[in-house]
Amino acid sequence: MAFHSQVDLVGGYYDAGDNVKFTFPMAFSITMLAWSLLEFGQSLGTDLQHSLKAIQWGTDYLLKATSVPGFVFAQVGDPYGDHNCWERPEDMDTPRTPYAVSKEFPGSEVSAEIAAALAASSMVFRPINRGYSARLLKRARMIFEFADKYRGSYNDSLGPWACPFYCDYSGYQDELVWGAAWLLRATKAPYYRNYVLANIQNLDKSSSFAEFGWDTKHAGINVLVSRLIKSQTPEPFITNADKFVCSVLPESPTISVSYSPGGLLIKPGGSNLQHATALSFLLLVYSRPLSKDSRVIHCGNVVATPARLIQVARSQVDYILGSNPLNMSYMVGYGAVVGGPDIKDSYGDSRADFAHSEPTTYINAPLVGLLAYFKSH
Fold first, then answer.
1. Which of 24, 100, 131, 360 is the residue whose CA sits 20 to 30 A from 271?
2. Is residue 182 located within the same domain as residue 287?
3. Range of 72's domain?
């Protein structure tokens, strides 16, 4: 629903080259920035302060977007008016209408992703700002409860504005489990553990082992939860995280992604480098418990070692930064990674071809952890 009361929604991030604040991909990007710091923050050196600022710029906004009881602000700006006119934010003159989900018009996916972002960020700030950390965690619990109690997709209420830009194609069940998993990691509370175990079977199992991004959380859930919930027999999260590895390794018999001749991981749709960065991040994160347990993964007759997972992640980072057939870096300046080349490694450098030329927050957020790790190794 469009919302006309006076509420402060200054701050936050635009998702890409437009001037609309889409809360769903923004919250996912903050979750990924926070996860990057939780895993690899010690490798960031002097850049740690910049990363903390980047996260807080997002979490401050998410606190504002959830500050009116019973409402969660899912979007600011009219996307059609905005996308018809490319201009600097300073010159923006398109409507800044805020859109919210509520009890009557639920949006479980956007609300639960906010809960995930706040819970993950609360752990980042815990050692340095306990008060702020506690505030984030308290809000995360509250918004998760709202997402779970009033279930429904924001497609149904905000579809005319959120779609086709950030329609939720995979349903909201994965965000509910993802939000609960982050709350479990942040609180260790049995309630969230039980929630994850009780709701995991609601996820669509068909072909989602290699799916992870702003819309679909499956592979991320399995990698995250495989380290949080042990003692299940059999352990579905470890089994599924192993299946994820086998679905992205180039030599695996059960591969479900494509690779360009130059070695770039490719999935259908626009902004392809979001898949290369997010899936590489998961490979790198999952390699750590494998190393610790001296374990390898069997993909049919192919054996995947932790070192091999790191190597595949590294090949994607190297490709993005210039080790590719065009010898071209897809990072602009010190941080804006664009959508990237096509499946033949070719790149038409055209602003109008936004599926390839536009940077997005969710392409860049997972790359922070990857770059921090490879800088120090």
1. 100
2. no
3. 1-203
pLDDT digits (tens, 9 = 90+) for 29-54: 999 999 999 999 999 999 999 999 99
Among 171, 203, 235, give the residue marking a domain's end: 203
* Residue 145 is among the residues annotated as catalytic for this protein: no
Q: How far is CA 327 from CA 39, 261, 306, 347, 351, in A?
A: 30, 14, 28, 11, 20
Catalytic residue (one of 15, 113, 215, 358): 358
CATH number of the domain that residue 168 is part of? 1.50.10.10
Nearest to 23 by CA among 59, 75, 71: 75
Residue 226 contacts residue 215 (beta carbons within 8 Å): no
Is there a single domain that holds both residue 135 and residue 208?
no
CA 2 to chain centre: 26
- The single residue of 8, 91, 93, 349 carrying the catalytic annotation is 349
The closest alpha carbon to 315, from 328, 302, 306, 324, belongs to: 324
pLDDT digits (tens, 9 = 90+) for 91-133: 888 889 999 999 999 999 999 999 999 999 999 999 999 999 9
- Which two three-digit tokens encode residue 171? 């349903």
Q: In this structure, are residues 20 and 76 in contact, taking their beta carbons and an 8 Å threshold?
A: yes
Residue 358 known to be catalytic: yes
CB atoms within 10 A of CB 354: 19
Does 198 share its domain with 130?
A: yes
- In a domain? residue 25: yes
Element holding 102 (H helix, E strand) = strand 98-102
Q: What is the pLDDT of residues 133-142, one digit of tens each?
A: 999 999 999 9
187 with 312, same domain: the answer is no
Map residue 363 onto helix, strand or coil. Answer: helix
